[in-house]
Amino acid sequence: MTITRDDLLHVARLAELAVPEPDVPRLVSQLGEIVDYVARLGEVPATDHAAPYLAGPAEVRLRADEVNPVPLARPPAAMAPEFVDGFFIVPRMGAMEGS
Fold this sequence. Notes:
Blueprint: H1 5-14, H2 24-41, H3 76-79, E1 83-84, E2 87-88
Antiparallel strand pairs: 1-2
Helix pairs in contact: 1-2
């Protein structure tokens, strides 16, 4: 595809870019090279066999999902002001009065 001077000025106008007149021939040439390069990318054969590149190892080894409780330094009852039958006893909030 050939890029013309009018094509360049049209694109510049759409992009709201001011293109100085002395730069037009150089920009027409560069834009033409870019369009040609993109057109050549379509000629590259695409295969379904190429694996995508993934950084890092191909497989991540996971550790066994085991629950290992961490023992507390003190029993819960020792940390609470009031602890009854496995529950922390907290004071009622004013908003809960009457409910």
